[in-house]
Design a protein that fits this description.
Rossmann fold; two-stranded antiparallel ribbon; AB_hydrolase_3; cytoplasm
Length: 713
């Protein structure tokens, strides 16, 4: 259905149901009937305000796409989420109309459903108002508001007070593909049960065991789950999230995951001694650069890695490599079996940096899909277990990833690799580290990787607002309050961080690496977007007129009334407010603007010469705009870059790639791009991202085209 048809269907079904339940009925259902009538009328009120806004955005959001073949940006995503909410309401309304006369009709249950979606629609209406403000306040073509004050500060303030529980109860994951919603519900139930038992037990497995017995009430009471989810995300510190996200690494769960995942011949945890070594310069092999072991914050220590290989290859069972192996308390990780055949070294190596918000997880959490990749690609994979914040903030993780990359180049014979082609791959925080590792390699003058595959990378760690970041209000995996705590920990501004002196001197620790940035800093990080988009502003004089038809200025204050903060929404409208006010303290650290932390802010001189970068983003990810703007930025300096956007999946889909057909297909997109790097081939044509598609129960949506099965090298 097109936009007009969607709204027409919504008005019709709401009006029909409101008329029916207004006429009266069973006395026992009078209260529920009243709730249904009120919800239907309020939904129509929100819809009448939303209809012209949705139509306006549909006319202009193409101006913010990376290119016409990849229609994706935060404005599109917001519209898609609103449309999906409307379709769910229509579906529910039609169900009520078809069953309201039945003796089995549960009026109270259906009233609760409609109230939940009515609340969600109200909050989405507020987000669209903020998106209209961004169109008004942002520079032309930019998806980010280029300051941590102003509109960015306003969004953080509104997030702290706006009601979010409706998105974590009955409406949880409504915007995503139906195949992934049961998994999200399981995660949400586990989270709130885990939060209830947090700090009552000493060990993570103790909390997990207690949570299992208390999770039932959250499964049967979605309102309670939503309220508790909101409380946890707004109030618990980064150490809680670190503990919760690491639950999958407990011996019981990791053993279960290992048994159900692809079986590989080599799965060896390594502890590499922190020894300095020389590496030839890329421009002059007679000269070399000294690669010193990481030392920031926690001192010099061994670097932790994991070698995964589907086949046993030359060097992988050498005495030298086995001497670096560390025990994980589980089964033997190098499976020689009955005289396992040893294959020659592979011409390809994949180096992987895991995600986890810079604060949680290790290669163990990402093992299932890495094993599958090793089989599909037929290459060894070296995954780096870099040190985590808040104990080891920036730049420690970057130092370790760069050291591991250089160590692999120097010791390729131990990894079952000939030393020919190498690709970096990572998701989320790991995607950030892939890009910044390349930037550091350029600063040292050593060999660049042959390519980078970054899945939903974080390229801008500042608190700048963008339309896709508005989705943090409803995202079950990446709420803004959680994201802010992770980034603050990485910047070294978490109060629990022990080494106060080293946090203050963070920039001095990367003085050599940031020389180019400091040299160009006078130009200002805020100027980067202007040079990128000046040509577009000149070539299309009609764009500004188109945008002004949708953009709105800040609303005027009521005469005679003084407010502590300026009003963000038009008179007559106010979003639902939370009973649990979040304490949002986003500290404006200079670390966030360091290009080795936020590569989107890097000057042109640091981006030129990077290897081909292939970005795989999610249409409904709060960090979508990071990917779109970084791809634009690379293209503006003539760097090879591709962008592929997958539909209807959440941030972190790689960790869910074993759970559904959709997530597996999205993971295969990453595999295709890694294969293209090794073969120096053009990646497959990116799948188009239809802005109108959404997975509502009554809407038939064709599944994405299945990728052709590729053979290993």
């Amino acid at each position: 259905m097109d936009t007009k048809a969607v709204f027409a269907a919504l008005y019709s079904v709401c009006e029909e149901n409101a008329t029916f339940f207004s006429a009266g009925g069973k006395v026992s259902q009078a209260d529920s009937a009243k709730r249904l009538v009120e919800s239907m009328k309020l939904i129509q009120e929100h819809a009448r305000s939303l209809e012209p806004v949705i139509s306006g955005f549909a006319a202009i959001y193409h101006h913010f796409d990376f290119d016409p073949l990849i229609p994706a940006n935060g404005y599109r995503s917001l519209v898609k989420v609103v449309r999906c909410c409307l379709l769910h309401i229509i579906h529910k309304g039609r169900y009520i109309a078809a069953n309201r006369r039945s003796i089995f009709f549960r009026a109270a249950h259906n009233a609760g459903e409609m109230e939940a979606y009515c609340s969600a629609l109200c909050q989405l209406r507020a987000l669209l108002y903020l998106a209209q403000r961004m169109l008004h306040d942002n520079s032309h073509g930019n998806l980010f508001f280029q300051d941590e004050s102003g509109l960015s500060e306003s969004f953080i303030r509104e997030y702290a007070s706006m009601h979010k529980g409706c998105f974590y109860g009955r409406c949880l994951g409504f915007q995503f593909t139906p195949a992934i919603r049961p998994c999200l519900q399981t995660i949400a139930i586990g989270l709130v049960a885990f939060g209830e038992n947090y700090k009552r037990h000493q060990s993570g497995i103790g909390v997990a065991a207690s949570s299992f017995f208390t999770s039932g009430k959250y499964a049967i009471d979605p309102e309670l789950r939503g309220t508790e989810f909101e409380r946890i995300t707004q109030n618990l510190d980064v150490h809680f999230w670190k503990t919760f996200w690491n639950i999958t690494e407990t011996e019981v769960l990791s053993s279960l995951a290992s048994m159900t995942s692809t079986q590989v011949k080599v799965n060896r945890a390594l502890s590499v001694p922190p020894v300095a070594f020389d590496l030839p310069l890329a421009a002059n092999h007679r000269a070399s650069a000294t690669i010193a072991p990481p030392s920031a914050h926690i001192g010099i220590a061994p670097i932790q890695m994991r070698l995964i290989s589907y086949d046993l290859r030359e060097g992988q069972d050498s005495e030298t490599l086995l001497s670096m192996s560390r025990s994980e308390g589980g089964a033997i990780s190098l499976s020689l079996g009955l005289k396992t055949k040893r294959l020659p070294s592979s011409p390809f190596l994949l180096i992987h940096f895991h995600g986890g918000g810079f604060v949680a997880q290790t290669s163990k959490s990402h093992e299932p899909y890495l094993k599958s990749w090793s089989q599909d690609l037929g290459v060894p994979i070296l995954s780096v277990d870099y040190s985590l914040a808040p104990e080891a903030p920036f730049p420690r993780a970057l130092e370790e990833c760069f050291y591991a990359y250089c160590w692999a180049l120097r010791n390729h014979h131990l990894l079952g690799w000939t030393g020919e082609k190498v690709c970096l791959a990572g998701d989320s925080a790991g995607g950030n580290l892939c890009v910044t590792t390349c930037m550091r390699a350029a600063a040292f003058g050593v060999r660049m990787p042959d390519g980078v595959v970054a899945a939903y990378p974080a390229t801008l760690l500042t608190a700048y607002a963008s339309p896709s970041r508005l989705l943090t209000l409803m995202d079950p995996l990446l709420p803004l309050s959680v994201l802010s705590r992770c980034l603050s920990a990485y910047a070294g501004s978490e109060p629990q961080t022990e080494k106060q002196v080293e946090r203050v001197s963070t920039l001095s620790l990367v003085k050599r690496d940031t020389a180019l940035f400091l040299r160009d800093f006078r130009q200002g990080a805020s100027n980067w977007i202007h040079s990128l988009l000046d040509s577009n502003r000149e070539t299309d004089p009609n764009i500004s007129r188109d945008l002004s038809s949708v953009a709105i200025p800040p609303p005027a204050a009521e005469e005679g009334i003084e407010l502590q903060h300026p009003r963000e929404f038009p008179l007559g409208f106010e979003p639902l407010r939370s009973d649990q006010f979040a304490e949002m303290k986003l500290q404006s650290s200079p670390v966030f603007k360091d290009p080795f932390c936020s590569p989107l802010l890097a000057p042109d001189s640091m981006l030129k010469g990077l290897p081909p970068i292939h970005i795989v983003a999610c249409a409904l990810d709060p960090m979508l705009d990071d990917s779109v703007m970084f791809a634009k930025r690379l293209r503006s300096v003539n760097q090879p870059v591709t962008l592929c956007v997958v539909d209807d999946l959440p941030h972190g889909f790689l960790s869910l790639s074993q759970l559904s057909k959709e997530t597996k297909e999205a993971a295969n997109v990453c595999v295709e791009r890694i294969r293209a790097v090794f073969l120096q081939d053009t990646p497959p044509e990116p799948r188009k991202h239809p802005p109108a598609s959404c997975h509502a129960p009554h809407v038939a949506v064709p599944p994405p085209k299945k990728n052709k099965e590729n053979q290993t090298f």
